[in-house]
From TrEMBL:
Residues 34-247 form the Protein kinase domain. It comes from Penicillium daleae. GO terms for molecular function: ATP binding; protein kinase activity. The keyword ATP-binding applies. This is Protein kinase domain-containing protein.
Length: 247
């Protein structure tokens, strides 16, 4: 973990306000509020920062260089959910947006997990990932009325207590693209299928090698319906209830 005394500082006269109804971003550099920073990688590089005020809090600040938009950042807003890494606030200074996220300890991305040769993800664990990511997506789609646009293993993080969360929602707010909600869920389906580790079978007759999917028929059916089905249906017949019944 690389230590740095402070974030790079810039000053700006801010010719016109960029904030909208959500009050973000603050038109100042985050060093006005946060200090003592360490550079870490947590679903992307960021600065682990302490608030320089009484009752300070620890946050993770990610830096994004961006062209100053005419109409501000209409989607940029605080966001909190058990299955989302919460966006606390944001700052804008001299062409740079500083996205300030909740920090609850070191995490690993799903990409890091699956790239470890000794780690094998079983069906129950895939179901848990599916359930938690679906909950996070429901919040984005229904409460914030926005898509994520990049649901992949690098943006899904696992905490030490087993909590699974979607990362980098601030980037989605900045891009403000018209991502289809179905696209997000279909990306989740592709991610889950990619987590399955098929077994290899060699034919005794032809010598040909084939791959056999290890997921159950129920799991495959549920994953196939992630895109078109409604949230109410998915949570009614969802993996959590199914696997609890089987335990």
């Amino acid at each position: 973990m690389e230590m740095n005394c402070c974030l790079p500082n810039n000053t700006s006269s801010n010719e016109h306000p960029l904030t909208r109804e959500h009050g973000l971003p603050h038109l100042e550099h985050p060093s006005e509020k946060y200090s003592l920073n360490w550079k870490i990688n947590q679903a992307g590089l960021g600065w682990l920062s302490l608030g320089n005020y009484f009752g300070y809090s620890t946050v993770l600040i990610k830096v994004r260089k961006i062209q100053k938009p005419q109409n501000g950042f209409p989607m940029l807003q605080p966001a909190f959910h058990p299955n989302i890494i919460g966006l606390v606030e944001a700052f804008y200074d001299e062409g740079v947006v500083y996205l300030t996220y909740n920090y609850s300890g070191l995490v690993v991305s799903l990409a890091q997990v699956v790239s470890t040769p000794t780690v094998k993800v079983n069906e129950l664990e895939i179901a848990t990932i599916c359930w938690d990511v679906l909950r996070g997506l429901e919040y984005l789609h229904k409460t914030l009325d926005m898509g994520h646009g990049n649901i992949d293993s690098s943006n899904i993080v696992l905490f030490a207590d087993g909590t699974i969360k979607i990362a980098n929602i601030g980037d989605s707010m900045l891009e403000d693209t018209q991502t289809s909600f179905i696209d997000d869920r279909e990306s989740l389906a592709s991610l889950l299928l990619g987590l399955d580790q098929p077994t290899n079978h060699v034919s005794r007759v032809t010598g040909e090698q084939t791959h056999k999917v290890t997921l159950s028929t129920y799991a495959l059916h549920f994953i196939e319906n992630l895109g078109p089905a409604s949230y109410s249906y998915l949570f009614e017949v969802g993996p959590k209830e199914y696997y609890l019944d089987k335990s």
